[in-house]
Specification:
NADH_Ub_cplx-1_21kDa, two-stranded antiparallel sheet
Length: 158
């Protein structure tokens, strides 16, 4: 017999310590609605992964899909620094063939690096931009000693 029936609900309300507790029997109108048997049969979605033919395991195994290495020769880097266009990636054999074919056209990398300055005091190297950006300034409430002693510190605040 269940306490959830209408007959015993008034007894449970007055005689139990916690009337909201349950005895584990599900309420008839709220248990598994809609019923599992009333739903339609599950149809698997059709995709390339579900096809059996021409689908070996090594093509589906994504755990071993390591990124492929891109090979850039010194000539490719020199062209990039000058502003030219370079193929996005080459295999090692294709890079070796291309290096032999184009070695006479491109300037050496050392010559290009020496001809231009990448960073100056006005054009600084890129800094990482994550987290809250802080602007530093010299503190106005600190007075350095003026007695001629060596005081190499500067007090900085945000």
């Amino acid at each position: 017999m269940s306490w959830n029936t209408k007959t015993w609900s008034w007894v449970k309300k007055y005689l139990s310590i916690n009337p909201l507790s349950t005895d584990g029997m599900p309420v008839v109108g709220k248990f598994r609605t809609p019923a599992p048997a009333s739903q339609g049969k599950y149809v698997y979605p059709k995709s390339e992964a579900s096809a059996i033919s021409n689908n070996p395991y090594y093509k589906r195994d994504t755990r071993r899909n390591f990124p492929r290495l891109a090979v850039y020769t010194q000539n490719d880097v020199a062209l990039l620094l000058e502003g030219g266009h370079v193929d996005p990636s080459l295999t090692a054999e294709a890079a070796a063939d291309k290096a032999v074919a184009t070695s006479t056209e491109a300037k050496p990398l050392v010559e290009i690096l020496n001809s231009q300055k990448l960073y100056t005091t006005s054009k600084l190297a890129p800094a990482p931009r994550f987290g809250p950006q802080v602007t530093w300034k010299e503190s106005t409430d600190f007075v350095p000693p003026n007695d001629g002693s060596y005081f190499p510190m500067r007090v900085i605040t945000t």
